[in-house]
Amino acid sequence: MGIIKAATSAMGGSLADQWLEVIEPNEMSDQTVFTKGVMVRQNDKRGSNKKGTQDVITDGSIVHVYPNMMMLLVDGGKIIDYTAEEGYYTVKNETAPSMFNGNLRASIQESFFRFKFGGVTPQRQQVFYINLQEIKGIKFGTSTPLQYFDNFYNAELFVRTYGTYSIRITDPLAFYANAIPKNQERVEIQDINDQYLSEFLTALNTSINQYSAQGERVSYLTSKSMALAKYMADVLDEDWKKLRGMEIVSVALSGISYTDDSQKLINMRNQGAMLGDAAVREGYVQGAVARGLEAAGSNSGGAMNAFMGMNMGGQNLANFSQTNQAQMAQEQTKNATQATWNCPKCATENTGKFCSNCGQSKPVPESAPSEIKMACNACGAVVNLAAGVPKFCPECGQPFVARAL
């Protein structure tokens, strides 16, 4: 028993008038991986098969195969023929299996010979269809945190993640034999996802750890979807691809969250990194003092006790502030020595005293005026204010009030 491809020229007119039965796939959504073939227009008065028997396919019946589908002709639960090429096929009991592979690899014939029906007389004949399109939007989430060593924080972090992944059935015969529950006529991906979810999450953890070994920051994982899918395909190749005939196509991490302890550690490290900047640290110290002064007024023990406590640590704060200011001055001096300038001759950017391109010397900035002269409003004497504003006029002894010359 097998199938032969019907000539397209014979497709005109009513199929029910030309063949005893016409079989098509039952309703198949983008989440359906397996469905049974049903007879179309079975109760139509024009149909030639008036006494059809359930699960018995009459010799000469036509089977319709749509794109991206694998059709299985099954007898007593065993595969006796298949096709992955779209078109119309006629069932012939006297023919040998045709085995139309379509775009699938030739190795699928090896699967056929492993699962095929060894008998001759048909008993319970059925047609099934397997979806060869990419099955998208399969949801996952980690019930327990995953361990991730982040070199940036130099710490072991524990994260939870969730998202979606997609699969494609690459060996429909192995998928039918090892992944489809027995006696099922329709299977959605969610019907069988639970049994594979633990394997998926194990592979996810293994793949994520590969990123950790490469020194990737944990926050970058959401942008590594395609590479992550490749890692997981390699991990699951033996169990999923070879045994069950399916493989991972893509993995999309929708978000990553940290456990409370990991989040506290990240916040602490980020704050420490921020306070490594002397200017930021100085502002933090000044802010802490200001908050202490603000809280003093509401202290239940009175402002006196609050200020006494602040005074005890005041010297330490002052020393700490002086250290910060000294570090800030060093950083400013360092930055000043490393300041860049553009050569007025060739426009090359330089840091030394001479241009590295043409040898032109660094321009000397214009010096600030050495004198600031103002007149005394009382006597009109001209006074140099470069060293500061005097309280009294050095010429007349009156309180100094400056006026422009």
TrEMBL record:
InterPro entries cross-referenced by the UniProt entry: SPFH_YdjI (IPR033880)
Pfam family, one: Band_7_1
Domain SPFH per the UniProt entry, residue ranges: 57-269
Signal peptide: none
TM regions (residue ranges): none
Organism superkingdom: Bacteria
Protein name: Virion core protein
Organism: Lactococcus hircilactis
